[in-house]
Design brief:
Helix content: 25-40%
Structural class: alpha/beta
Bound molecules: flavin-adenine dinucleotide
Number of strands: 8
Number of domains: 1
Distance between the termini: 23 Å
CATH topology: Rossmann fold
């Protein structure tokens, strides 16, 4: 398989840098072809602005979604964005790797999503009608491909448990897993999370590396998170609410968007 790792850490000798190398070596040992987008090394421009839409004059008002749609349709997105889109189309598997910063991804990676996920590419795709609400949440340009997160945290695993002070990790990662990966069609694998890493010693590193190698070995077969697909009867169109007959009575929150059967 072809695997793209989009990696966001400013320090090459960091723990994240070492874990990226572990992942790359194991994937290559399994016969996969791997490419890495190292966002800091690429000096990736994180902020979306006028410069992203060359046909737009400097005095013209920028409305990001229409400008994005027009630039995607006319093939005038900037070369750095087009190169990343080509990598996404190339890859069978996408891995987003980052340290958890303020309960989310580093700004540079969020900026990669903002700019690379153009209108017509990752959103604004497909028929919008009484029967369908576009190709999204399980359908879209990136359908048929797998994706997963590779995350490190300073906080303890217990802090991210069901009753932990930080909130459950699956809830914190839901906007990324469901909103950024599932939305344009990816089949989303459970995240690989290493907790409490800030004072990791050599033994701890070996344990995390070994766990990571196992996940890389099974990347083709790991069962995905069973998110419900949008246009297959689970949701009322156009309100996009889960039908009352699905999920246990009174249930609400992120977890209702996972079906019991994948
Ligand atoms: P590094 O600092 O590079 O290394 C961590 C430890 O691993 C070091 O002790 C290092 O010696 C050791 N290590 C062991 N083996 C190796 C090896 N082979 N190579 C390299 N290092 C090794 N945490 C949360 O839980 N929630 C948050 O919301 C959160 N927000 C944050 C916001 C900011 C702005 C910052 C800076 C940190 C935040 N953190 C948070 C903590 C953060 O998630 C961790 O600091 C980060 O995940 C550690 O990863 P790293 O790659 O930067 O580790």
């Amino acid at each position: 398989m072809k695997v793209l790792i989009v990696y966001a850490h400013p320090e090459p000798t960091s723990l994240n840098g070492a874990l990226r190398d572990v992942a790359v070596h194991e994937l290559e040992a399994q016969g996969h072809e791997v490419r890495v987008s190292d966002l800091y090394a690429m000096n990736w421009k994180a902020g979306i602005d006028h410069a992203d839409f060359p046909p737009l004059g400097p005095d013209q008002r920028l409305q990001v979604a229409p400008a994005s749609a027009q630039a995607f349709a006319s093939n005038t997105l900037t070369a750095d964005v087009k190169a990343e889109q080509d990598k996404l189309v190339w890859a069978d598997v996408l891995i987003l790797q980052f340290p958890l910063w303020w309960f989310s991804m580093p700004a540079i990676l969020k900026g990669w999503v903002d700019r690379v996920y153009a209108f017509g590419f990752a959103y604004g795709v497909g028929e919008q009608s009484e029967r369908r609400w576009g190709d999204r949440y399980g359908e879209g340009k990136l359908a048929g491909k797998r994706a997963m997160l590779l995350v490190t945290t300073g906080g303890w695993e217990e802090h991210y448990s069901a009753r932990g002070i930080n909130g459950p990790i699956d809830d914190l990662l839901f906007p990324i897993n469901h909103g950024i990966l599932f939305y344009p069609g990816y089949t989303v694998l459970p995240p690989f999370v290493s907790y409490r890493v800030d004072r990791l010693d050599e033994a701890g590193f070996l344990a995390v590396s070994s766990r990571l190698r196992e996940r890389m070995k099974t990347i083709e077969t790991t069962p995905p998170i069973p998110y419900r697909r949008q246009n297959f009867g689970d949701y009322v169109i156009p309100t996009m609410q889960l039908r009352p007959e699905f999920g246990s009575p009174g249930a609400a929150g992120f977890s209702i968007h996972r079906s019991e059967t994948a």
